[in-house]
Amino acid sequence: MEKLLVSIPDAATALSVGRTTVYELMRSGQLDTRKMGRRRLITAESLRRLVEKQD
Fold first, then answer.
1. What is the largest CA-CA distance in the chain?
2. Contact present, 18 and 50 (Cβ < 8 Å)
3. From its phi and psi, is residue 29 left (phi > 0), alpha (psi between -120 and 50) or beta?
4. Using CA atoms, how far apart are residues 2 and 51, in angstroms rounded to an integer?
5. End-to-end CA distance of the chain, in Å?
6. Is the Cβ–Cβ distance between 24 and 31 less than 8 Å?
7. Residue 55 has pLDDT above 70, yes or no
8. What is the pLDDT of residue 18?
């Protein structure tokens, strides 16, 4: 089964950027997040959208 939500470090690895850049993308609304307990996770769909938009 494919992951629907990824952690911030995993998103940084997937995008080949640093954690600070991921936080900036979250603040600007380019990455959608969900709160699961105390953790903030990024939707896999928003990662795909961001990459596709860069083409």
1. 34
2. no
3. left
4. 17
5. 27
6. no
7. no
8. 98
Q: Structure pTM?
A: 0.89
Nearest 5°: the CA angle 43, 44, 50 is 95
Do residues 2 and 44 touch, judged by C-beta distance below 8 A? yes
Nearest partner of 50 among 42, 9, 20, judged by Cα: 42
* Residue 54's pLDDT band (cuts 50, 70, 90): confident
- Please give the structure tokens belonging to residue 14: 């997937």
Instruction: List beta partners, residue 43.
Output: 5
Tokens of 7: 């952690």
Give the mean pLDDT of 24-52.
97
